[in-house]
């Protein structure tokens, strides 16, 4: 080994030892075992997609999962095709309307959201369910389709082992307050704004 | 319908019509059909998970997908369990080392990264591959395991229909420059920092 390479290895080793110490210390303190609330918000790409990645992950261990989608009613999506086609312990509920700006009917949208919320609330009471996804829930709350207090209560009083993922732009502080993990997806750039069409298998 | 409800419906309808106009205009301008480069960076949760959600999505349409993971060598993960267990058109390559702060050996890590990059470069030349994931590529670049210019060239000269997803903290400007979509996952809160253990089926 050249002296230069030895030197580089030495620096790398010191940096990695210091990194390992930080990681080991954090791991030794992170001992509480329970389900969490994850909130993905912000205007960037990746919120629903990250939720769907987690669904795939949970199902990979055979954990029972319930997906509820509060906006994307009748859209086709690849992950649903794949995950529903095999015998996974997965339920998938949608609002059964189109995007709300297509329907433009507040009462119909609200009724569909409330019906969907009943499915979500049922999952949030069920100890057998490991993961509940409340996709685009922020819209249903911000449009006041759902009763905020009832939603917060159902989430915070869920079974201890259950994890909940909430997605959507414009999450209010009350959602951040009940979440254990909050990631804000910030859009630095979006292909759509450069005139590139949304793509099958990538965007939906 | 009560007057109050009519009024609310009227306001909602006006808001949704305006929203529909904005969306329709954007859709009418987004006509370019090609694969894109998506970059997920930042310190928050959701980067790899969003990439895995997209893999599930692409495979849901039967699109050929290649995943390369530049750090997470020997970890078990639920999505790999699930997606590799069925006959999907999916290749999954890992560095075959442990986290780099566990090994603390620069030359061994670099050799493993270069070997993995060869797999990635092969995929980036293959017109049959619809989606290539370069998970945690930023580390391999920031540690200078890989030649930056060779990586940028392989990505920008890929087949026109191919989409590439790059993940990892600390993406430099040269990666943002070649990306069509950049989302920065900003950690507002992380359960791990509140002493909650990483959870099977959720974190890995």
Automatic annotation (TrEMBL), chains A, B:
Enzyme class, spelled out: transferase
UniProt keyword list: ATP-binding, Cobalamin biosynthesis, Cytoplasm, Nucleotide-binding, Porphyrin biosynthesis, Transferase
GO terms for MF: corrinoid adenosyltransferase activity
Keyword Zinc tagged: no
Pathway assigned to this chain's UniProt record: Cofactor biosynthesis; adenosylcobalamin biosynthesis; adenosylcobalamin from cob(II)yrinate a,c-diamide: step 2/7
Swiss-Prot/TrEMBL catalytic activity: 2 cob(II)yrinate a,c diamide + reduced [electron-transfer flavoprotein] + 2 ATP = 2 adenosylcob(III)yrinate a,c-diamide + 2 triphosphate + oxidized [electron-transfer flavoprotein] + 3 H(+); 2 cob(II)alamin + reduced [electron-transfer flavoprotein] + 2 ATP = 2 adenosylcob(III)alamin + 2 triphosphate + oxidized [electron-transfer flavoprotein] + 3 H(+)
Compartment(s) of residence: Cytoplasm
Source domain of life: Bacteria
Keyword Transferase: yes
Major subcellular site: cytoplasm
Domain Cob(I)alamin adenosyltransferase N-terminal: 3-26
This enzyme's EC code(s): 2.5.1.17
Pfam families: Co_AT_N (PF12557), CobA_CobO_BtuR (PF02572)
Described purpose of this protein according to its UniProt entry: Required for both de novo synthesis of the corrin ring for the assimilation of exogenous corrinoids. Participates in the adenosylation of a variety of incomplete and complete corrinoids.
Family: Belongs to the Cob(I)alamin adenosyltransferase family.
Name of the protein: Corrinoid adenosyltransferase
Organism: Microbulbifer echini
Gene name of the record: cobO
